C-alpha cells in the first residue's frame, strides 16, 4: 500500500526505535532496577563490553527478517523462512550474546532450514513445557509488520508473526506475544497511535482473556515489577508498562532500561512499538549517529531496510 510520508517515518521508527532500545539497554543487561531519576546513557559496556551504540542479538536477529521483506519476499514462503534461519545460523557463528534457547537450538540444527528449526523448537517445548517461553522471539518481531501494512492484512500478519516465532520457540506464549505486538506495530504505523488491547482479537479465542489480564497487570505496575523478564510474558509486560507510562519515545526506552535485568530486550521490544507510533524523527540524533551492529549496518542502513520492506523502493525516504 502507498504510505504517507508520516507512515513511512513510523515504519522506519519501528526498526530504529527497537535498535535504539537494544543499544541503550545493552550496557545495563543483567543489572538491577535503577531509580527513576538515574540518567540512562547509550554508552555500551556491560557484560559483553558493547561499543557505544552497538546493538545486540535482538536487532541482529530482526535484520534478516527485514532483509527478506526488503527483497520482496513473503513470510508465508518457506524459502524465505529458510533464508532467515540460514542468516541466523551464520550470525550465531560469531555472536557473543546469543540467548540460551536460541543458541541451543541453532547449535543443534542438522541443517539450517526452517523445517529443521521449527521441528527442533517444537520438540524442545514438548520436553520442557515450563521452560521454553523465552523472550527471544518477541525481541525480534518488530520488522514482521512492515510486510503487512495493507488493508485487511491482519490475519496474514498474525500467521506470519507466529510462523517466525515458531522457528525458534515452540511455546504458544511466544507466538501469542509476537502476534499481539506485531499487530500493534502495524496499527501504530498506519494510525500513529498505540493500541495493544484491540489486537487481542487476532489471538485464539480461548487465550484472549488471559492476555487481557496480562496487559491490565502491566498497566497497573512498573517495568521493575516484572523481574522474570527473560520470560516472554513478563518481557511483554515490562515493555508495555514502559509504553503505558512513558511520555515519549526516549522516556519509554529509559523506563524500560530502568526496569533492570533483561534491559536491552525489554527496551528493544518497547522501542519497536514506540518507534512505530512516534516515528524515526522521535529517535534522538545523538542515538542515530551511534547506532550500529551486525551485519555491518548503521541507522541509515536500518532506515533503508525499513523503506524497502514496506515497498517504498530505494531512495523513497
Ligand atoms: Mg540482547
TrEMBL record:
InterPro entries: ADP-ribosylglycohydrolase (IPR050792), Ribosyl_crysJ1 (IPR005502), Ribosyl_crysJ1_sf (IPR036705)
Keyword flag Thylakoid: no
Keyword field: Hydrolase
Superkingdom assignment: Bacteria
KW Transport (keyword) present: no
Pfam families: ADP_ribosyl_GH (PF03747)
Recorded family membership: Belongs to the ADP-ribosylglycohydrolase family.
Record protein name field: ADP-ribosylglycohydrolase family protein
Organism name: Cellulomonas wangleii
